[in-house]
Amino acid sequence: HPYLFFIGKSYFNETDKQKKEQGKALLIDTIKVLIDLPVAFSFVYPGTVPPKVVGAFGTVTSAIGIYQLWK
Fold it and tell me: Residue 26 in contact with residue 55, Cβ under 8 Å?
């Protein structure tokens, strides 16, 4: 399939710097999602996660989101 070939070819044409930037962005996004899980869990099952933890995690994920937009 030509589209798959294009995806594979474009990946190999990227520089190492671009690959490192994509890897860093993926790592930051993965960390953000993992930290956000207890916040989502607290909405589904209220009272299972302490409010201070929900607030702290929500603040951290918001700060990461602002960092991602700013960058």
Answer: no
pLDDT in tens, 3-58: 444 555 555 556 777 777 888 888 899 999 999 999 999 989 998 999 999 999 99
CA distance 58 to 60: 5
Backbone angles phi, psi at 69, to 5 degrees: -75, -40
**CA distance to 19, 21, 29, 30, 55, per residue, from 26 (Å):** 10, 9, 5, 6, 24
pLDDT of 1 strictly over 50: no
**Termini Cα distance of the chain:** 35
Rounded CA-CA distance 10/5 in Å is: 8
Structure tokens belonging to residue 24: 């860093």
